Amino acid sequence: MAGSTIGRVPPQNIDAEVALLGAVLLRNRALDDVQEILTKEDFYQRGHQLIWDAIVGLRNDKPSVAIDLVSLTQYLAEKGTLAECGGASYIAGLTDSVPSSTNASYYAEIIRNCALKRRLLDLSVTVGDKAFDETQDVQQSIDEIEQKISALGNSIGTNNYTDVGALLLKVVDEVHDRQAGKKSSGISSGFRILDKYIGGFKPSDMVIIAARPSVGKTALGLNIAINMAFGPNPVPVGFFSLEMSGASLVERILSNKGQINNMVLRNGKIDSVSEQKMMDAAGVLYENAKNLLIQDTPNISLMEIRSQSRRMKRENDIQAIFIDYIGLIDLKGPANMPRHEQVSIISRSLKSLARELNVPIICLAQVNREGGKDRPPMLADLRDSGSIEQDADLVILLDDPSKRLNEDGKIAQYEEEESDGDEPTVKTKPLKIIIAKQRNGSTGAFNLNFVADYMAFREIERF
User: Fold this and answer.
1) Which of 162, 217, 359, 427 is the most buried (most CB within 10 A)?
2) Nearest alpha-carbon partner for 5 in 106, 113, 125
3) Which of 109, 144, 174, 243 is catalytic?
4) CA distance 399 to 396
5) Which residue spans within 309-425 are E strands per DSSP?
6) Which long-range contacts (CB under 8 A, 24 or more apart) does 334-343 make?
7) What pLDDT is stored for residue 310 in this prediction?
8) 188 and 64 in one domain?
9) What string of DSSP letters covers 271-300?
């Protein structure tokens, strides 16, 4: 078989291992440079693993004792592992093969890279085992493998913790950048009044945008995605559309950006003016087409969403993920599992994915129809699971007061809004945006105007 590893020596560099151990013996300060990079398992040769373990153990158990040939040999003898290391003569010979004790970090990097390659080989065996395991779901296998690969990639870093001093410096610098207008605390929604409340969408946050059916949650979510991908400071985003086709979404995007009546695009009765608008909008969108990645597989599974999100992050460095909508995600769990339990698992998994990829995941959700005639939606109305509310860092509820009777006992109507210049008059109506939960901020509410013809939202307040 091409590429077979049978009969091949696993990646290793014995010379680098010997040089590193000798460098530490000659210059104990070198241990400070490499101790957090390496573990004993990173060494290929068993004797070198034991020697490294003894060096670290000696440093921890007897910090006042210098690590040299005598102290290390004695420590290994006390542990009963001196003979397995090759004896005192082998320990003494380590310092004879050190090109330079100041290159310890370089030697450690070589050892670490070889160790990572060996772990990658071990992972390939795991992949093969899972491929032959007929009892395991293939998507679950792929998800587990991708997690292991991601963890392997993340392990290249040195520390998985930091002290508060380093974080303080980082935070203070970021605050100063925000003060100077150089940096936002999150990705802008494109609506300044919304950003004023939430400070942009934060990395690792799970965000819920929820509304009753046919109120406009998809339109709002898509508007925010458009603003992120094609706005003044564009960033790549991923959009999982479980309810609408990709083509239907693009029709809405063209309508939004070109300010063309959506029904005109749908029925094809387009005049020359609208056609020019469409082509102009298409040209602008095409220039940044890779900033919006659409996945429109209906009833896509949770495992597939996790897998493709990782791929989007890896290949396109997406900065946000949209899912429309969470209630349509297929868990592929036991057939008898209640739906609210499924949604709980999905919610927790998406929250974990947001942290793993360090991007906000913005999930659209439905709220129950109950109470629609007499009150705005509330957190308790989130359909299927209270865990969505618990897991979410930010919950935005969208309300259409026109669905309820006003004080005069009448249903509110769209209002005509005169456009500037030669643009046609459009009809708008205010929809209430309710910040129902914000883990690190305040709640509140404000209105945005909804233009149904363009499937677009506009700010009422002018900043």
Assistant:
1) 359
2) 125
3) 243
4) 10
5) 320-324, 361-366, 394-399, 415-417
6) 339/384, 340/384, 340/385, 341/385, 343/384, 343/385, 343/387, 343/388
7) 86
8) no
9) -HHHHHHHHHHHHHHHHTGGGEEEE--TT-
208 located within any domain? yes
Helix (H, G, I), strand (E, B) or coil at 430: strand
Q: From its phi and psi, is residue 268 left (phi > 0), alpha (psi between -120 and 50) or beta?
A: left
Distances (CA, A) of 131 to 6, 120, 121, 123, 211: 19, 16, 15, 12, 42
**Considering only CA atoms, which of 290, 291, 321 is closest in space to residue 306?**
321
Residue 414 located in a structural domain: yes
Q: How far, CA to CA in Å, does 139 sit from each of 143, 216, 270, 361, 394?
A: 6, 32, 44, 21, 29
| Ranges in the chain, pLDDT < 70 | 1-7, 151-163, 165-167, 170, 174, 177-185, 333-335, 369-373, 383-386, 404-425, 461-463
Q: What is the DSSP string of 112-145?
A: HHHHHHHHHHHHHHHHHHHHH-TTS-HHHHHHHH
According to DSSP, the residues that pair with 301 across neighbouring strands are 330
Structural element, H or E, at residue 459: strand 456-459
Task: Read off the CATH number of the domain in which 150 is found.
Answer: 1.10.860.10
Name the strand (E) or helix (H) holding 433.
Answer: strand 426-438
The CATH code of the domain that includes 422 is: 3.40.50.300
Residue pLDDT, tens place only, 103-123:
888 888 899 889 888 888 888
CB within 8 A of 398, min separation 6: which ones? Answer: 209, 210, 211, 215, 216, 217, 220, 377, 431, 432, 433, 434
- Are 264 and 295 in contact by the 8 Å Cβ rule? The answer is no
Token pair belonging to 206? 């799970």
Which run of H or of E encompasses 432? strand 426-438
- Annotation marks residue 243 as catalytic: yes
Last residue of a domain, one of 121, 154, 187: 154
3-state helix, strand, coil in the chain (%, to 5): 50, 15, 35
Is 340 in the same domain as 232? Answer: yes
Q: Which domain holds residue 293?
A: 177-459
Provide the pLDDT for residue 321.
96
385 is written with which tokens? 């699971």
Sequence-ordered list of residues with C-beta below 8 angstroms from that of 203, at least 6 positions apart, any chain: 186, 358, 359, 360
> CA–CA separation, 311 vs 305, rounded Å?
10
